[in-house]
Amino acid sequence: MVINTNIAAVNASRLLAQSTNMLNTSLARLSSGSKIVNASDDPAGTAVSLRFNAQISRTQAAANNVGSAVSFNQTQDGFLQKVGDALNRMSELAMLAQDTTKSDSDRALYNKEFTTLGSYINNISTKEFNGVSLFNGNTLAVTIDSEGNTFGMTGVNLAANTYSDATSATVSSLSNAQTALTKVKTAIDQLATDRATVGASSSRLSFTSDQLSVLGQNLQAANSRITDVDVAQESTNYAKYSILVQSGTAMLAQANALPQAALKLLG
Predict the structure, then answer these.
(1) Angle at which helices 231-257 and 7-32 pack, to 10 degrees?
(2) What whole-number distance in Å separates Cα of residue 144 and Cα of residue 212?
(3) How many CB atoms sit inside 10 A of residue 69's CB?
(4) d(CA 165, CA 147)
(5) How many CA within 13 A on the CB side of residue 29?
(6) From the CB of residue 264, how many other CB atoms can be counted at a distance below 10 Å?
(7) Residues pairing with 136 in the sheet
């Protein structure tokens, strides 16, 4: 029996420290909801989770960009619907002005509405969405994924000659009305093409938005498997280490008491 070096107490102290550290780790995991509290808990998992988190953020940003592009397209189409209504009325006026029973005075009345509608279309061609022109014909590069790849959203140009020829025409005379009708019909054909283009872009962006939503969910699920704590398992670990700490504390007290038996030999 020795007094200076209490091996039993040293071992009990070491084991108690280990149990205490594990208990603290389990407590931190349960309180944080993450099984990676420190990078040392899972170095490789920490690195993978960091990349996942960055990709999730970029994917959400791309989804926001696509959502803005969808709103841009919807705004375009809303204006183009009204342009279509105006062109339809202009074609009707051009036909009415070709009535041979009408005088030029009558045609002047038709022409007043015709030119007013033309000005309305010209005004729409200057409209903007958040400072970006809706109808200047420029193709917009919309980011569609977390890597920065883009989709070229074809623009619509309401200032093109096809439209400006129609909006600058008049129905003030029979011959002018005949010419105006031809130009308006051409503009209507162009509008049909432009609306189809806008619709195709909207459809493409809608599929992209759904894809990004699914991708974001899958990335979050993958990241969850790496970082999120299994509460049932960790609760079991917590109970286990709690018992070990209590028993270790009791055994350390017993080990520290052992050298006192040496006093009986000295007595």
Answers:
(1) 160
(2) 8
(3) 23
(4) 43
(5) 23
(6) 8
(7) 157
Residues 16, 253 contacting (CB under 8 angstroms): no
Amino acid at 182: T
Beta-strand pair 132-133/128-129: antiparallel
* H helix intervals, the chain: 7-32, 43-96, 104-124, 161-167, 174-227, 231-257, 262-266
84-117 residue pLDDT tens = 999 999 999 999 999 999 999 999 999 999 999 9
For 203, the token pair is 């459809």
The DSSP 8-state label assigned to residue 128 in this structure reads: E
- What are 29's two structure tokens? 């995991």
> Would you state the structure tokens that stand for residue 105, as one six-digit string?
């005075």
Torsion of CA 219, 222, 227, 228, to 10 degrees: 100
User: Which amino acid makes up residue 143?
Assistant: T
pLDDT in tens, 185-240: 999 999 999 999 999 999 999 999 999 999 999 999 998 888 878 788 878 887 88
Closest by alpha carbon to 177, among 86, 99, 85, 120?
A: 99
Residue of 18, 88, 62, 72 whose CA lies nearest to 208? 62
The Cα 209–Cα 227 span in angstroms is 27
Q: CA 107, CA 121: separation in Å to the nearest integer?
A: 21
